[in-house]
Design brief:
7 helices; Glycosyltransferase family 2 protein; globular; Glyco_trans_2-like; Nucleotide-diphossugar_trans; alpha/beta; two-stranded antiparallel ribbon; 11 strands
Length: 251
Amino acid sequence: MKLPISVFIITKNEEKHLAKTLASVQDMDEIILVDSGSTDKTLEIAKAYGASIHHHDWMGYAKQKQYAMSLCKHEWVLNLDGDEAINPELVAAFRDIMAQDKADSVRFWRNDIFIGKPLSRFSKKANNHRFYKKSKSHFDDSRMAHESASVDGKEIFINHAFDHYGYDSISAITTKNNTYSTLKANEKFVKGKRYSLAKLLLVFPLVFLKEYLLQRKIFSGKRGFILSVMEAYYAFLKEAKLYEFHENNKP
């Protein structure tokens, strides 16, 4: 018997990893996929795995996810990207949480796959908030990137992880960082935030040290060093592009 959970996914040209995503959620009763114009095999893969496909022109990450969530019929929803996959341990945990009504939202680890394999078990993982009750959740549409649902209720953390393949190559991360840094800088500019000369000078080395030492990517060898540099450069790009927005919009 399938779990009364609605999975919602927003896509555009996600053929590379989507089959892994959809195969991992076959125990869920409903899969909602909102596509904004894929030209690859995304829709073909989605049909093969029984997803309910909806086309919607791109509105931004938060608005697109809010729309996708609104299509879900179940109270419990699972928000995944087309390059992510869950495992049987997480499915079992979801089943237990729902049966005992332990919480309104659930946070768990994200296992980044980088250059063919996960980071070291000694490197600190990110955690994400992806499983929650629909009636108590909403997305802040003022956030242009790194959007996450806000949930009015009890949140718990479980010691399980899902796999994230969006960091599988340096090229993929570079493309994402360039896109997201523009969105985040624009978000700050729209909210009236100013760039900082001190941050321009210091953000790269400080974020690198945080990622490499405090986040323990040092234990992931050369891959950890590369990823730390890329995280630092992403932080620098956000501040540099904020400066650029202000320069280009002077009276």
